[in-house]
Amino acid sequence: MDAEYYKLSAENAAGLFERARADYDVVAKTRDANGNLVYGRPVSFEDVAFVDEQPPMSAKAFALPQNETLVRYERGGGEIRAETPEAPARDLLLFGVNVCDAAAFDIIDRVFQWDYLDDPYLARRERTTQLALACTALQRDCFCNRISYAEDGVDAVAYPREGHYLVKIQTDNGRRLVERYRNLFAEADGDPETEITSFLEKAGTAKREPLLETAQSGLAGAFEHADWEILASTCIGCGICTYTCPTCHCFDIQDEGGYVGGRRLRTWDHCTGRTFTAMPAHQPRDRQYKRYRQRLLHKFWYYPERFGPVLCTGCGRCITHCPVKINIKELVEYFGGLSDAPPGGRRHAP
Ligand code: SF4
Ligand code: SF4
After folding, report:
1. Residue 106 · residue 130 · CB < 8 Å
2. Could you tell me if 266 and 67 are in contact, meaning their C-beta atoms sit under 8 angstroms apart?
3. What are 204-253's pLDDT values in tens digits?
4. Domain parsing of the chain, residue ranges
5. In ligand 2, which atom is closest to the CA atom of 143?
6. Which of 28, 138, 191, 343 has its CA 20 to 30 A from that of 118?
7. For the stretch 276-285, what's the b/e string if a residue is b when 16 or more beta carbons lie within 10 angstroms of its beta carbon?
8. pTM metric for this prediction
């Protein structure tokens, strides 16, 4: 659809939140009891945190929970009863989420509706509407300006202006949101696209040449690069980068229970872990640097080769939260041939 533009006053933004709570399960940034920034379910508009800062955990768990029961069974009375999860009872509204976190869903969607339709995930996505909030500045580790992820898949984006938001509607889902609360929105005046462009330039989030996509061909020739061992072997395989990442989506399946009853459970997994892809007789990624290499190449080579965009929004969480300070952006630039300087100045001895 062609984009549509509206003005939402600050006062009407509060009204939108309150009215939407009656119709949606509303998720927004808020503070937990300890003051930590999280994606949660604030009960009043005053509890919503309108900040550029990202919560450590992205919003992906609202479509792909950290743990979920895929099927539960019970045996008794000569029969076996099996239950699959019910579809979500309410529509979900992601209110004021970071644009990169909203865009990450579109990237994961491609996997979950590719060779197999993942019903539980897709049922949740079907009922999700995103009203993202544009950042006013790049954060310390972000590099979304270097990644050309598909922002136009985000249902609606609100750009903060003086006393109001300029809201860009990009999908039918976003249009339904406006139609539902039409009296809160006014038609935008002037030239909204020019206004948005100048907002992004001022914020530093305007897309520059998407350099990290151009690293793909360089990475394809760097699989055997000798420096992987030096530069990626500091990884301790903790999985923090994948758990906090909005686009990582690998999971494990566990069966629990026995003859009389049990369940099949899906839990997040991570490719940097020692047992990931391990087989009884062999672990093909038998060194830690190979496991980290897999994560990076999956994001910037294998996934784009199959689906188009890179498997990354440049949110920077994996840099911020890595306990050993591995920097994926610098590694992509180095192994992709965009920079001669190895991260940290370390280089494999010739
Ligand atoms: S790259 Fe960092 S965060 Fe990720 S598994 Fe390795 S040590 Fe943990
Ligand atoms: S790989 Fe790192 S920078 Fe990219 S989306 Fe995941 S956490 Fe964010």
Report:
1. no
2. yes
3. 999 877 788 889 889 999 999 999 999 999 999 999 999 999 999 999 99
4. 4-209, 212-345
5. 3
6. 28
7. beeeeeeeeb
8. 0.94
